[in-house]
Structures are given as C-alpha cells and as structure tokens.
Amino acid sequence: MTHPALTIPRRRLDATDLARVAVFAALVAVLGLPGGLSVFGSVPITAQTLGVMLAGAILGPWLGALSMAVLLALVAVGLPLLYGGSGGIGVFVGPSAGYLFGWIAGAFVIGLIVHAAGRKPVWWRTFLGMIVGGILVVYAFGVPVQSLVTRLPLDATAAMSLVFIPGDLVKAVIATAIVMTLVRAYPRAFRRTWTTGRTEAPAEVATPAPAEPRVP
Predict the structure, then answer these.
(1) Which of 56, 103, 121, 214 could form a disulfide with 111 if both were Cys (CB 3.0 to 4.6 A apart)?
(2) Pick from 204, 205, 197, 212: which is nearest to 5 by CA?
(3) 143 phi/psi in degrees, rounded to 5
(4) Alpha carbons 74 and 10: distance in angstroms, whole number
(5) What DSSP character marks residue 188?
(6) How far apart are the first and last CA of the chain?
C-alpha cells in the first residue's frame, strides 16, 4: 500500500501551487539577506534553514522540495539568493554544497512527517519533522560533503558541526510555533495537504414529511 503522502496529486500544478512554490523560494532567499556567521572559515550560520523548515511543513513534501529545487536552480544560474548575496555555480562545489542539496531532501522529509498519512499537523509531529528533516537530514548531506571538500576527517567535521545545533533548535521551535499558529488561524495555508485530503460529507437533503390525509 502506498503511503498517502508519497502519492503525487492527480491534478497538475496550477497557478496557485506555482505561486506558493515561488513565495517560499523567495522567503528562503530573503532570510539569507542579512548574511551569515562563518564557522571555522567554511560553512556559515544563517536563518535560511528556517525557511526550509516552513516550506516543508506548509507546502508538504513534494511542493516543499520543489520550492528548494527552484531556489537552487536560480542560484546555479547566478542569482545572488544565498547568504549575504552569494550565488553562482561555484557554491555547489564549496564546503556548504551538501547542506544546500540537503535543503531539498530536508523539506521533503519534513512534509512527510508533519502531514503523515494526510493528517492535520499537531505540535509534536511538527517539531519532530523539524528535527529529523530540518536538522538531521540536512546534516546527513552537509557533513560528508564538507569533510570531502575541506579534507578534514569525517568525525572532526561532525564535531565542528555541533556549533550549529543550538541555533537550529531555536529555528525548529520558531517554525513549529508558526505552523501551529497557521493551523489554528489560517488552515487554508496548507493547500493540498491535510485540508484538501479530507472528504466533506455531502449535505443532508431534507425530505419533506408525507402530507397527512385530510379529514372530510
């Protein structure tokens, strides 16, 4: 049996889907405008992973991953959409390249967990998605590539990456709070996830009562 979240919607992407993908790609780009704090002269700490977390949780696995793929495609053609206005094909051969590709997989995994089986997001599953997809999956891509590029041992690179953990946990908490606020205040933000997966019961049609026989 196929997992509901892994089923590609039968309907093709419409203008609203594409607009939402563009909005979250732009959100991640905006979060990179302030720049980042360089760690050991290689991978910077930025706010952009907050946008990755929100993309996966709000758009769902497929559109969340697509929004990150669109962002990276624009970066590859030279647009300065990463931390501090960086861009171009060169960023994909640098120490942070693995983290960038991890954004796509991370957004996908976040969407799978937050909207597991097409259910309404709850706080604990949302936070779990942020931790697993937004941190562990991104690190699983980023740390080995960073180790390869910098030619440092994998264990040493993993140890250095621990400096990211406090900030990422804060971003996971913020993202969870935003998602749960949207669930309560604006559920339409979760288009084609749990809100569109529900089947509305047909409205009951009132049946007129039989007319009573008239007494002559």
Answers:
(1) 56
(2) 197
(3) -65, -45
(4) 27
(5) G
(6) 66
pLDDT digits (tens, 9 = 90+) for 193-216: 765 444 333 444 444 555 555 555
pTM (2 d.p.) = 0.83
When pLDDT is cut at 50, 70 and 90, the band that residue 153 belongs to is: very high
Residue 154 structure tokens: 């994998």
> Which tens digits make up the pLDDT trace of 49-86?
999 999 999 999 999 999 999 999 999 999 999 988 89
As a whole number of angstroms, the distance between CA 133 and CA 9 comes to 22
Structure tokens at 40: 């050991």
H-type alpha helices, 2-83 = 15-31, 48-59, 61-76
Would residue 46 be called left, alpha or beta, if left means φ above 0 and alpha means ψ between -120 and 50 degrees?
A: beta
By CB neighbour count within 10 A (0-12 exposed, 13-18 middle, 19+ buried), where does 142 fall?
Answer: buried
User: What is the rounded distance in angstroms from the CA atom of residue 152 to the CA atom of residue 129?
Assistant: 30
